[in-house]
Amino acid sequence: MSKETKQETVPLQEIETAEEIAEEQLPTEVEAEQAQVPAEAPEAEAEEKPKRKKKEDEIVEERFYTVPLQKALIRPPHKRTPRAVTLLKIFINRHMKVAMKIDEDDEEEVMPQLIITQEVNEKLWSRGIEKPPRKIKVRVTKDKDNNVTVYLAEN
Q: Helix, strand or coil for residue 1?
């Protein structure tokens, strides 16, 4: 029986050495990848920071609204939250004067976009399809291209 136990321990030692070999190989592969990445990373970081500033600079107008959504409750229960989303869009279009813009170069009409962020959508759908909130506080921004984005107002 002692021979059997020795035979069982030998494969365990072999497995440990295989794990050690695998651990030794992984850092060398990672080091090779890291050697290539840092040369490109500072350039990518430098490019990303100005892009963020450009987005902030593009904001022409910013307003805060409390949008009433009581009229959504007139609908049948299984249609209330989709109606609340529609009411939000109608309200924002009316108050932010989202209108078509004509390009001088192409002389074509450009349709601006109304973008509702995921936070606002999740807030509207937080209690399900049958019970949307009665009102919602939002922050609305308009950029140079006349695109309107709706964010959830921070309390």
A: coil
20 lies in the same domain as 70: no
> For residue range 40-59, what is the model confidence (pLDDT) as tens digits?
545 444 444 444 445 555 88
Domain with residue 127: its CATH number is 3.10.440.10
Cβ neighbours of residue 134 closer than 8 Å, sequence gap 6 or more: 68, 69, 70, 73
Q: What is the CA radius of gyration of the chain?
A: 29
Structural domain containing residue 85: 60-152
DSSP string, 74-142: GS-GGGHHHHHHHHHHHHHHHHHT---EE-TTT--EE---EEE-HHHHHHHHTT-SS---SEEEEEEEE
